[in-house]
Design a protein that fits this description.
The record marks 80 as: Lowers pKa of active site Tyr. The protein is an alpha/beta fold and 282 residues long. The chain has helices at 32-44, 58-67, 88-102, 120-132, 146-155, 174-183, 202-211, 215-225, 237-243, 253-260, 275-280; strands at 9-11, 17-19, 23-24, 48-50, 76-81, 107-112, 136-142, 162-166, 186-190, 229-230.
């Protein structure tokens, strides 16, 4: 990944350019809150917004993009198909619903939110058809392990272009990063700041002092130097701006390794092997 500035991109396996820094809007309230956050992000130079049908704020995302003075083609919009909408026909309907809420003719990236057993392959086949129709510029998956992606590659005709997983210094999963490299799949982080739980870590606070940055900025720069797209969530303009202020320094190889060493396989969300139980208990 060649890291330049806030509007820098990486090329996916099909040649589509995806911004490596974006704004996540999970748990951002639909309406004024999400619209304001996106307007602030766009004003600061962000061109990548990540939402999902499960977030219940696609309407607000669409409104914000429509109200902005940025051409649609210059924005990169991701949304996702939720667990209860999976299967071939259900996915087609869910996609149409998302497109209508977003008030768009296409989305840049459509993802399977979680690999629902016995359904995610059929879901993928529906996404392949939507991709071939030009309604989606790129397709991928979230919260998957190697076995899920192997199934999709075996049963489908198009390999996933993106894998979005929980990723932060406590959950590196280097084996998955390496696997994605071999398959030409771009890795992307959700919860890159571990939902704030790691910001006072002594290793990170020392690095923050060394580079004159915040611990959050150290982590987000680490993401990019690990070749991982990152989509930190915030609704505060100052934090949205700070999250993008990561292009005037570079972590050393030794400091990258020290952050890698914090890995304990700790998650803030569900594990792909038991997520159905996790969401059933919500």
């Amino acid at each position: 990944m060649q890291i330049t500035d806030i509007q820098g991109t990486v090329s996916l396996s099909n040649g589509i350019k995806m911004p490596y820094l974006g704004l996540g809007v999970y748990k951002t309230e639909n309406g004024a809150e999400v619209v304001s956050a996106i307007h602030d992000a766009i004003d600061l130079g962000y061109r990548h917004i990540d939402t999902a049908s499960f977030y219940k704020n696609e309407d607000g995302v669409g409104q914000a993009i429509k109200e902005s003075n940025i051409e649609r083609e210059k924005m990169f919009i991701t949304t996702k198909v939720w667990n209860t909408d999976q299967g071939y026909d259900n996915t087609l309907k869910a996609f149409d619903d998302s497109l209508n809420k977003l008030q768009m003719d296409y989305v840049d990236l459509y993802l399977i939110h979680w690999p629902v057993p016995n359904l995610y392959v059929e879901t993928w086949k529906a996404m392949e058809d939507l991709y071939k129709q030009g309604k989606i510029k790129a397709i991928g998956v979230c919260n998957c392990l190697e076995l899920h992606i192997d199934d999709i590659i075996k049963e489908g005709t198009i390999a996933p272009m993106v894998l979005q997983n929980e990723f932060h210094p406590r959950l590196v999963q280097q084996h998955l990063l390496d696997y994605c490299k071999t398959k030409n799949i771009q890795y992307e982080a959700w919860a890159p700041l571990m939902r704030g739980r790691i910001l006072d870590n002594p290793v990170l606070t020392e690095l923050a002092k060394k580079y004159g940055k915040s611990t959050a900025q150290i982590i987000l720069r680490w993401d990019l130097q690990k070749d991982v797209i990152t989509i930190p969530k915030s609704t505060h303009k100052e934090r949205i701006a700070a999250n993008a202020d990561i292009f005037d320094f570079e972590l050393s190889v030794e400091d990258l390794a020290s952050i890698d060493s914090l890995d304990t396989e700790e998650r803030t969300g569900a594990h792909p092997d038991n997520f159905m139980d996790h969401f059933a208990n919500k």
